[in-house]
Amino acid sequence: MKRILYTYLLLFGLTAWAQGPEALFQQANDAYKKGDYQTAVSAYEKVLQSGKEAPELYFNMANAYYKLNKIAPSIYYYEKALQLAPSDEDIAYNLALANKMKIDKIDKVPENFFLRLRKNMAHWFSSDAWAKIAVFFAFLGLILFVIFLFNKQTHLKRLTFVGMFVSLFMLLFSLYNANFAKHLEQVKYAIIFVPETELRNEPNLTADKVVTLHEGTKVRLEKTEGNWAYVKLPDGKKAWIPASDVRFLSINK
To answer: Residue 208: which domain range?
Structure first.
C-alpha cells in the first residue's frame, strides 16, 4: 500500500468545542496511535454523540474501523467524510481501499460525458456556496451597469459593457450549478450493514429474490415503505431491502 492510513490531528476547530468533545477526540487520536483501535472507535463515537461532526472526525472513525477489518462502518464513515469534503483526495483514496474489501463487485452503469461534466462542475462547491457566488456576480453586474450608465469615458464603457455580460454569464452559470448541486445533495444513499441480505421484488419476505448483497455495498435510496427501502444498485437494478439492513447516509445538519 503506497499510502498509509493515518489520522488528522486537531485541524478542524476543536478549540471552539467544549472541553468534553475536545478531550475525547484527543484521547481517541492517542488510542489510535497506540494501536488500540477499539478504544479509539468508542471515543470517536462519543464525540459524534455530542452532536459534533466534521470530515476529520468521520475520517478518523473510518480509519479505526478499517484497522479493525470492519468493512461496513469503515465505508460508511469514509462516505460521511466525503459528503462534507467531496474534494479531499485522501478520503477518496482510503474509501477506494476500503471498497476493495467488499464481497460484491457490481458494474456501474456508465455515465455519458456531459453528465459527468455537470457533476464535476457542481461538486466544485456546495449548493450554498454556488448560491453565494451567484449573489456576488449579481451585485457585480449591477455595479458595472451603474458605472456604464454614468461614466462618459468610451474605453471604460466598453470594459464595463463586457464586464456586465461576463457577470451575467457567471450569474447564470452559478445558479445552474447551485440548482444541480442541490439536486445531487438531495439524492440519498445507504450502506448495507449486515453480513448478507436478500433484495426482493416486493416489500415482503415472501416475494421473489432479486439479488443477494453483502456488507459495505452502497445503494441509492429511491423511497421507503414501512420497514422496507426501495433501492437502486450501481448496475441499475431496483429492489426492496429491509430498512434495518442498511444505514442511511445523511448529514447531521
So the answer is: 188-249
**Residue pointed to by grid coordinates 416475494:** 207
Q: What is the CATH number of the domain that holds 50?
A: 1.25.40.10
Residues 93 and 19 in one domain: yes
- Does 60 reside within a domain? yes
In a domain, 194, yes or no: yes
**Average pLDDT rounded to a whole number, residues 152-176:** 92
What residues form DSSP beta bridges with 224?
229
Identify whether residues 123 and 61 lie together within a single domain: no
- What's the Cα-to-Cα distance from 107 to each of 78, 96, 110, 153, 233, rounded to whole Å? 21, 15, 9, 61, 9
Q: Is the pLDDT of residue 18 over 80?
A: no
SS3 for 86? coil
Residues 19 and 84 reside in one and the same domain: yes
Digit-coded pLDDT (tens) for 143-161: 999 999 888 888 888 999 9
What confidence tier does 192 reach under pLDDT thresholds 50, 70, 90? Answer: very high
- Set of cell numbers at residue 147: 458605472
165-171 LR contacts (CB < 8 Å, sep 24+): 167/137, 167/138, 167/140, 167/141, 168/137, 168/141, 170/133, 170/137, 171/134, 171/137, 171/138, 171/141
Cβ-Cβ contacts under 8 Å for 64 (sequence gap 6 or more)? 28, 32, 37, 40, 41, 44
Residue 102 CA to residue 80 CA, distance in Å, equals 18
Q: For 193-214, what is each residue's pLDDT tens digit?
A: 999 999 999 999 999 999 999 9
Provide the number of structural domains found in the chain: 3
Q: Are 47 and 25 in contact (CB under 8 A)?
A: yes
Condensed to tens digits (0 to 9), the pLDDT of residues 85-105 reads: 877 889 999 999 999 999 988
User: What's the grid cell of residue 232?
Assistant: 437502486
